[in-house]
Amino acid sequence: MSKVKRPNINELDKEEFSDLESYRYVEFNDCLFVDANYAIDFDGCRFNNVSFSNLVLENYVFSNSEFINCDFSNTTLSNGGLNTCLFNNSKLVGMHITDSSLNNVVFLESRCDLINIISSKLSNIEIDNCSMTSSNLYELKLNNVFFTNVKLDNSSVFNTSLSGIDLSSCSINNINVRNQDLVGALVNSEQAISIIKALGIKVVD
Fold first, then answer.
1. What is the DSSP letter of 179?
2. Fewest Cβ atoms nearer than 10 Å: which of 14, 45, 59, 196?
C-alpha cells in the first residue's frame, strides 16, 4: 500500500496542447510538448507517452496528475510545483528540479539517473524501484520521503539531512555524503560497513 497520496482523476477530455494557461481534467496522448514561454497550470490531467524533454518549465504547476511513459530527459523545472502526482515508467534522466515544491509525489519504476534536485522542498515522496545513479541532491528539505529499492550509486548529497530516511533496501555504492547529513539515516549492516570504510575507519574483526 502506498505511503503517499496518489492522484484521483475524474473522467477526462482528450485534447492537444494549445495556447491555454491552464488545463483541467484533460488527457494527452502520444505527443510532444513545446515550451509555451509562459507558466501553465495542469490539474487533474493524465499524460500518456508525452515528451517534455529538453524544455525549461518555469513556474509550471502540475497538480493531481499522472505521467505514464513520459520523457522529461534534460528538462528543467524551476520555481514550480508537483502536487499529488504520479510518475510511472517514465524517463527523468538529467532532469533539473530547482527552487520547487514537491508534495505527495510518487516515482514508480522510472529512470531518474543524473537527476539534479536543488534548493527544493520534498514532502510525502515515494520513490519505488527507480534508478537514480549519479544524481545530485543539494540543499533539500525532506519530510516523509520513502526510498524503496532505489539505485543511488555514485550520487552526491549535500546540505540535505537524511535523518529518518530508510536507505536499507537501496544501493548506495560510492555515495558522496557529508557525515552531518548522514546522521540518523537508516542503513543495513552491509551498507554500514561500506560507509565506515569510506570514512577511512578500519574495521577489525
1. H
2. 14
* Burial (CB count within 10 angstroms: exposed 0-12, middle 13-18, buried 19+), residue 152: buried
Residue type, 62: F
- The predicted model scores a pTM of 0.91
Is 113 within 8 Å of 131 (Cβ atoms)? yes
- What is the CA angle 24-30-34, rounded to 5? 70
Question: From CA 170, how far away is CA 153, in angstroms rounded?
Answer: 9
What's the pLDDT tens digit per position in 23-49?
889 999 999 887 766 778 999 999 999
Q: Is 64 helix (H, G, I), strand (E, B) or coil?
A: strand
